[in-house]
Amino acid sequence: xxxxxxxxxxxxxxxxxxxxxxxEIDESLAADVGAAFARLMRGEGSQRLxxxxxxxxxxxxLAAAFAGGVIAQGLDVVRIGLASTDQLYFASGxxxxxxxxxxxxxxxxxxxxxxMCRAGAKPVGQDSGLAAIRxxxxxxxxxxxxxxxxxxxRDVLDDYGAFLRSLVDMSGLRPLRVAVDAGNGMAGHxxxxxxxxxxxxxxxxxxxxxxxxxxxxxxxxxxPTNLKDLQDYVRATGADIGLAFDGDADRCFVVxxxxxxxxxxxxxxxxAARELTREIGATVIxxxxxxxxxPELVLERGGTPVRSRVGHSYIKALMAETGAIFGGxxxxxxxxxxxxxxxxGMLAALYVLAALGxxxxxxxxxxxxxxxxxxxxxINFTVSDATASVDAVLKSFGSRIHSIDHLDGxxxxxxxxxxxxxxxxxxEPLLRLNVEGRCAEDVDAVVQHIxxxxxxxxxxxxxxxxxxxx
Length: 470
What we know:
CATH superfamily of the largest domain: Alpha-D-Glucose-1,6-Bisphosphate, subunit A, domain 3
CATH architecture of the largest domain: 3-Layer(aba) Sandwich
Low-confidence stretches: 464-470
Number of helices: 15
């Protein structure tokens, strides 16, 4: 069936399909997307497709409808059932077939969506498949006159856990008490399978019950309020480290033994340093909002840093183009060449646990080795005219601007150790601001100056900066 372009455009985002269940996404749409994706993949030579889903109430039915659309196009379906997004990527890599994951990641319970990839976990984004799927949904997916595909079930959870552990040497570590906040999301399913078999780790679970209504807090650790329970839990249990995952468990946030967040930039630098010890001279990708400590450290360790736009489709494309060993983003997405260039928060967690357990210092001291600057964290402004707001900000700095580039929004170097990036959201009427400087006072001064300019053009600041969430 054909669909109105406006309705299709509401759910097709920059990197996936996502919307409100019932009003924007339903089983009929899922079936059509399945057919469109299968037709696209069949044209590229694929013969089967893996499908996984998260714990949301709507996910099983949507996944089943999608599978029906795939089968009708002649492709076989491998159902892996309950899964994290990186577990679906593992299935795509291990089975060498395209994949689809039903999840709305960190979004509230009323939402759901579809993340898709090609064989080997290669990304599907606007320029690599979503535009073609959009066109098929609007014009109607052409039928297939061949035999329908088949359906099989395959549990890959234990294989996924064993594969991740094979990539990081976890032998000889000191005992670690590891608190994990799954936020009632898929880490409650995957953390025991990955971390449970490691003798040196005592797992301290928090909100492991799979519940797509998220009764305790949203499964969005990027919001500092959603880290509070883990911070309190780490301090109460005497844990050596805390790990928080989002709803589909592809992102991992780290909390030290004092309950203080360790920034994703610091985690990126730590993992990059470890990867460079086993391949000197390797390339490491970092997005343009990541701390400048990351490229500095990569250069010091003999590696080659490559800067990227924000977003997994850009990072993954650069990973493939450059053969990079690792990539990291400020949003706690971590990408590994050994994981088909895809992102895995659980694999990043293993690297941090190995680094912590092979020496005696607490995590707060270990992390300090990789942090050189202060940061604002991401600050959002609701704006009616993003261009006018950005122009006002740039004009206000005048001769203070040392250099500027437009790789993704505007990145401005103020020449005194401070810099900022201001970019529009891909999906919302927001401007996103990130500031870094040599000290907290410098960062606060730049934030206040920019906020005043955006407010003067009618913008509204969404949330105060949280320095802990760098």
